[in-house]
Recover the amino acids of this structure.
């Protein structure tokens, strides 16, 4: 009960904070549509894709994932603000401890990422034909993509010491994850080295799963996509848990004499 | 038969940061309900000691128990009984005061109506009713600190560990903070361990512990610490201060002699008249003041290199 209250408190706080950061919220919603309109429209004229698929329709699943990726990861990475302003220590000192803090942050990041992706998904019928069944499947894929993004964000936040590094993270982590994922161009056409990178990139599987969900042809099977996303989410959670609690590692490594 | 365990008990507690020994060996026993001041210069190990007792750091050596619970093995049980205040305020600028407190209540494991009742009570006790709907960013440093105290006490902890709770506050807010803490002690018998650089704040403490270079250099009642320096302190300034201090010592009237800045503080024992007479005839004395010993004198005597003379 105590741990549940803590998790609920952390999620509620993150959601309230998100709604009060209007510019960040609007920026997060505008980003995917700008890509869709500015990049998508431009490439529509020159991109030649198999079948009758327009370039905008091709990138739409990737753009939905992009919204979830940025929303989820940036919400999780905001933990660095909490570290800088003393809120993280407050959370880590609670009876529920590190696991509850991570679970709360991850859940909040998943909700924010999924909500931002869902807004983009709502406009999907304007670009690609989508049935209600496909819509529900896309929502499921979205939740998995957002959860994975939140966990990756927590992993990054665990090592980030200053808010000044925030913009750097977007350039060095977020954009490469997006570009080497098949969101904007098929991974099958990539050079072997880049393709190998794409296969190790969890966002690739999120985009692929979203393609399956909206009725497009994917590179991997649905089971492979789901398994890869779940594995990436669990691994990132494990790594974040270790990185967030260096004191516990210290204790495990060199346990001092305990009290009588 | 053994009584209930002490609020805090630690022995040989220490912590290293790489090669740096922040806390060497900290021994402390704090009785339930006591008010204990932890004093010492910057870098003495006060914050490290408090973070270790607060389960936020793992010890490199030694052990500590809070109400009988080990801070390493039983962190959750320890944290349930703890309220912590850090040097920096922990108030979310985007949340209102009430929302900040509700967040803290949920972190403490309180849910639903219980959390809301605890928040309402904390708002009342801390005098925050008029500011309850204000966002954290609109509060001054003093009010943010009061929110911190309200936050740390809203789950009625048995032990408060406060790291410089009044640092940077004006006298009015310092007064408010101490009134709130004293009320908590009076009504609930809360044990309080606090650190401060305002030594007058430690005067009403039941015990004062002085740390220097990671070790306890004094641990006693404030009265006992003060009286160990002498019956009175003679503050002497001027070019002839050292000569006069030596002369008083020669008379056998000096219990301690401290060199502070450009002057001397001499802890007197016995009647003061011979000292006054001696000072009257001594050359180069700009100022001589006689006053009762203070914790500041104790602080200098115990923590400052070369303070003792000769």
């Amino acid at each position: 009960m105590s741990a549940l209250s803590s998790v609920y408190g952390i999620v509620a706080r993150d959601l309230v904070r998100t709604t009060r950061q209007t510019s960040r919220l609007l920026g997060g919603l505008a980003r995917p549509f700008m890509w869709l309109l500015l990049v998508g429209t431009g490439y529509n004229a020159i991109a030649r894709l198999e079948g009758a698929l327009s370039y905008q329709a091709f990138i739409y699943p990737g753009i939905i994932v992009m919204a979830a990726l940025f929303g989820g990861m940036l919400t999780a990475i905001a933990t660095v603000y909490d570290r800088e302003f003393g809120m993280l220590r407050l959370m880590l000192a609670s009876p529920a401890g590190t696991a509850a803090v991570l679970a709360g942050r991850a859940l909040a990041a998943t909700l924010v990422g999924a909500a931002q992706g869902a807004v983009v998904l709502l406009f999907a019928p304007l670009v690609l034909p989508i049935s209600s069944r496909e819509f529900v499947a896309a929502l499921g894929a979205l939740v998995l993509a957002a959860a994975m993004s939140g966990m990756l964000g927590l992993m990054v936040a665990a090592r980030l010491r200053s808010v000044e590094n925030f913009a750097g993270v977007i350039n060095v982590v977020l954009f490469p994850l997006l570009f080497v994922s098949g969101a904007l161009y098929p991974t099958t056409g990539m050079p072997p080295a880049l393709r190998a990178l794409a296969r190790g990139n969890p966002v690739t599987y999120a985009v692929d799963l979203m393609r399956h969900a909206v009725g497009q042809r994917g590179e991997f099977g649905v089971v492979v996509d789901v398994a890869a996303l779940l594995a990436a989410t669990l691994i990132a959670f494990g790594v974040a848990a270790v990185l967030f609690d260096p004191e516990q590692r210290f204790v495990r490594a060199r346990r001092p004499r305990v009290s009588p | 038969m053994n009584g209930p365990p002490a609020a805090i008990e630690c022995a040989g507690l220490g912590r290293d940061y790489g090669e740096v020994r922040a806390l060497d060996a900290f021994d402390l026993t704090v009785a339930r309900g006591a008010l204990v001041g932890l004093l010492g210069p910057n870098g003495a190990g006060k914050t490290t000691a408090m973070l270790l007792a607060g389960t936020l750091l793992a010890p490199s050596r030694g052990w500590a128990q809070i109400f009988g619970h080990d801070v390493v093995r039983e962190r959750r049980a320890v944290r349930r009984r703890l309220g912590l205040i850090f040097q920096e305020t922990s108030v979310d600028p985007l949340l209102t005061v009430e929302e900040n407190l509700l967040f803290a209540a949920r972190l403490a494991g309180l849910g639903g109506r219980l959390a809301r009742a605890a928040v309402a009570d904390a708002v009342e006790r801390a005098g925050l009713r008029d500011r309850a709907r204000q966002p954290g960013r609109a509060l001054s440093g003093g009010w943010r600190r009061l929110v911190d105290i309200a936050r740390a006490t809203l789950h009625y902890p048995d032990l408060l560990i406060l790291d410089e709770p009044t640092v940077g506050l004006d006298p009015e807010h310092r007064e408010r903070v101490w009134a709130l803490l004293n009320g908590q002690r009076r009504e609930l018998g809360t044990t309080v361990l606090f650190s401060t650089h305002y030594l007058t704040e430690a005067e009403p403490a039941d015990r004062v512990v002085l740390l220097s270079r990671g070790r306890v250099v004094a641990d006693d009642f404030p009265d006992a610490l003060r009286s160990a320096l002498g019956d009175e302190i003679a503050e002497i300034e001027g070019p002839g201060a050292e000569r006069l201090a030596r002369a008083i010592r020669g008379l056998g009237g000096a219990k301690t002699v401290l060199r502070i800045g450009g002057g001397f503080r001499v802890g007197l024992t016995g009647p003061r008249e011979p000292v006054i007479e001696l000072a009257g005839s001594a050359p180069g004395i700009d100022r001589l003041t006689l006053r009762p010993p203070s914790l500041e004198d104790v602080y200098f005597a115990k923590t400052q290199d070369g303070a003792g003379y000769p």
